[in-house]
Amino acid sequence: MLVHAQQDSIYGILKAHGLPMGLLPKGITRFGFDDTGRFEVHLDQPCKTKFESEMHYDRNVSGTLSYGQIGELSGISAQELFLWFPVKGIRVDVPTSGLIYFDVGVVFKQFPLSLFESPRDCSAVQDSESDEAITENRHEEILRRNDK
């Protein structure tokens, strides 16, 4: 992927496209961006951070940038209540209304744009944590079956 010299960070590229820099967390190890607006970022490991709701970032995040929005987004999920929804797109109003909208498939979640002004620290999510929860649930299910 081609990276433009005047935009030497993914945060600068976001800003040049009318998007806040805090949409992506700190800890990006490398990124690519091409002339079609397609971008890809790589993190050391999956992580999560909290805005008004919790956000999960996969190790690889990709999408297509156009002014004021990201489409075809993959690698980001947002938590609502106890459920996780993949974020499929993000957009801001031009001119700005002070809000940012996350397309989570069934609805657009809106947040104050100010929450995303700068990149946030992102806590590591260990794959083993997910595996342990799944293993524990399976173990409980097996015990329930055996008790019947």
Q: Assign the structural class, choosing from mainly alpha, mainly beta, alpha/beta, alpha+beta, or little secondary structure.
A: alpha+beta
Total strand segments? 10
How would a crystallographer describe the biggest sheet?
A: 10 strands, antiparallel
Per the CATH scheme, the topology name is at5g01610, DUF538 DOMAIN
At CATH level 2, the architecture is Roll
Silhouette: globular
What is the number of helices?
A: 2
Mean pLDDT: 84
Measured by DSSP, the beta-strand proportion falls in 35-45%
User: Cα distance, first to last residue?
Assistant: 57 Å
Class in CATH? Mainly Beta
Task: Describe this entry's structure for a reader.
- With 148 residues, this protein is of the alpha+beta class.
- It has a single domain (10-147), classed as at5g01610, DUF538 DOMAIN.
- It contains 2 helices and 10 strands; from the N terminus they run αββββββββββα.
- Strands 1, 2, 3, 4, 5, 6, 7, 8, 9 and 10 form a 10-stranded antiparallel beta sheet that branches.
- A hairpin with a 6-residue loop joins strand 7 and strand 8 (99-103).
- The longest helix is centred in the C-terminal third of the chain and has 21 residues, at 127-147.
- The radius of gyration is 18 Å and the shape is globular.
- The termini are far apart.
Concise overview:
The protein has helices spanning 10-16, 127-147, and strands at 28-33, 38-43, 47-50, 54-66, 69-80, 83-86, 89-92, 99-103, 108-112, 123-124.
Give the helix/strand layout.
Blueprint (H helix, E strand, L loop, with lengths): L9 H7 L11 E6 L4 E6 L3 E4 L3 E13 L2 E12 L2 E4 L2 E4 L6 E5 L4 E5 L10 E2 L2 H21 L1
Antiparallel strand pairs: 1-2, 2-4, 3-4, 3-10, 4-5, 5-6, 5-7, 7-8, 8-9
Protein name: DUF538 domain-containing protein
Organism: Hibiscus sabdariffa
